[in-house]
TrEMBL record:
<keyword id="KW-1003">Cell membrane</keyword>
<dbReference type="Pfam" id="PF08352">
    <property type="entry name" value="oligo_HPY"/>
</dbReference>
<feature type="domain" description="ABC transporter">
    <location>
        <begin position="7"/>
        <end position="258"/>
    </location>
</feature>
<dbReference type="InterPro" id="IPR017871">
    <property type="entry name" value="ABC_transporter-like_CS"/>
</dbReference>
<dbReference type="GO" id="GO:0005524">
    <property type="term" value="F:ATP binding"/>
</dbReference>
<dbReference type="InterPro" id="IPR027417">
    <property type="entry name" value="P-loop_NTPase"/>
</dbReference>
<dbReference type="InterPro" id="IPR003439">
    <property type="entry name" value="ABC_transporter-like_ATP-bd"/>
</dbReference>
<keyword id="KW-0067">ATP-binding</keyword>
<dbReference type="InterPro" id="IPR050388">
    <property type="entry name" value="ABC_Ni/Peptide_Import"/>
</dbReference>
<comment type="similarity">
    <text>Belongs to the ABC transporter superfamily.</text>
</comment>
<dbReference type="InterPro" id="IPR003593">
    <property type="entry name" value="AAA+_ATPase"/>
</dbReference>
<keyword id="KW-0547">Nucleotide-binding</keyword>
<keyword id="KW-0472">Membrane</keyword>
<dbReference type="Pfam" id="PF00005">
    <property type="entry name" value="ABC_tran"/>
</dbReference>
<dbReference type="InterPro" id="IPR013563">
    <property type="entry name" value="Oligopep_ABC_C"/>
</dbReference>
<protein>
    <submittedName>
        <fullName>Peptide/nickel transport system ATP-binding protein</fullName>
    </submittedName>
</protein>
<keyword id="KW-0813">Transport</keyword>
């Protein structure tokens, strides 16, 4: 694994503009992804995970959305400053994305083969025969049987798991250096979920592709990720290697997420749930954004926004909480 990250997001700020003014959806988010690494981004619906991924791809609808600050460095190139023409070259070729519902991402009017071949030809400029063979090879790589026959099928003729495998084949067909997977298993049943996750991990190892996996499912994170970012209300509240997050969670929100996961070894009448709801974007102007739901809240949390602190004795572990200012923790 090289020291230079494939993706380096620095102080990213993405907002949506309405009659009520600017509504920040992603607020000064920073993280990096190394070659061959699988990074998980976790949080409840509305925390800014998907907006972060769409910002990286520069697919935020304008208007009302806009990247208003920060940098997105892909192999050192700042995508924020890149033209739409340049982004069309980058999308699919250097960075690709898998969306959560493949039926809305695949065109129902064209065969699987047509859609795979078109993407390959746009980015590689190879002939149709060679593109056809490359598409068949990709379908085989993602574990689809009768690949040649599937090339002639339409999306509605395939099951949900097969469509998701086609989407992964399409995303990887030009061998991108970075793959963003936004809730790739949400619409699938548990057995197919496990197959898709195993497939992504296997392809990550074979092709050395860096993956950003966006999910709300901590079981998925434990299964495939090496490092985890926890987001809340548009901000990163904790970041650590995956085992460190599960063994030694530091932010009250991360603790709440882990306590909410059902444990088959315990017989509980009622599952734990974090009190309250995720705040509307832009509704909290001062203080910690988790303060209204936090059992450890104190006066300072209501007026000041905590920075990221490095956790003592834990490598690469940072947390956005005043509780960790004590005990010699250093502001990151």
């Amino acid at each position: 694994m090289t020291n230079a990250p494939v993706l380096d997001v620095k102080q990213l700020r993405t907002s949506f503009f309405s009659e009520d003014g600017e509504i920040p959806a992603v607020d000064e988010v920073s993280f990096s992804v190394n070659k061959g690494e699988i990074l998980g981004i976790v949080g409840e619906s509305g925390c800014g995970k998907s907006v972060t991924s769409l910002s990286i791809m520069k697919l935020i609808p304008q208007p009302p959305g806009k990247i208003v600050g920060g940098e997105i460095l892909l192999n050192g190139e700042n995508l924020v400053a890149s033209s739409e023409k340049r982004m069309r070259e980058i999308r699919g070729n250097e960075v690709a994305m898998i969306f959560q519902e493949p039926m809305t991402s695949l065109n129902p009017l064209f065969t699987i083969g047509n859609q795979l071949i078109e993407g390959i030809k746009i980015h590689t400029k190879i002939g149709k025969k060679e593109a056809f063979q490359q598409a068949v090879d990709m379908l085989k790589l993602v574990g689809l049987p009768r690949a040649e026959q599937i090339m002639n099928d339409y999306p509605h003729q395939l099951s949900g798991g097969m469509r998701q495998r086609v989407m992964i084949a399409m995303a990887l067909s030009c061998h991108p250096k970075l793959l963003i997977a936004d809730e790739p298993t949400t619409a699938l049943d548990v057995t197919i979920q496990a197959q898709i996750l195993s497939l992504m991990k296997d392809l990550n190892e074979k092709l050395d592709t860096a993956i950003v996996l966006i999910t709300h499912d901590l079981g998925v994170v434990a299964e495939v990720c090496e490092r985890v970012i926890v987001m809340y209300a548009g901000k990163v509240v904790e970041e650590a290697p995956v085992m460190e997050i599960f063994k030694n969670p530091k932010h009250p929100y991360t603790l709440g997420l882990l306590q909410s996961v059902p444990d088959v070894r315990e017989n509980k009448e009622r599952l734990y749930s974090i009190p309250g709801n995720v705040p509307k974007p832009g509704s909290i102007k001062t203080g910690c954004r988790f303060a209204a739901r936090c059992e450890f809240v104190h006066d300072r949390c209501l007026t000041d926004n905590p920075p990221l602190y490095k956790v003592n004795g834990a490598e690469e572990h940072t947390v956005r909480c005043f509780l960790h200012e004590q005990g010699g923790a250093v502001s990151g």
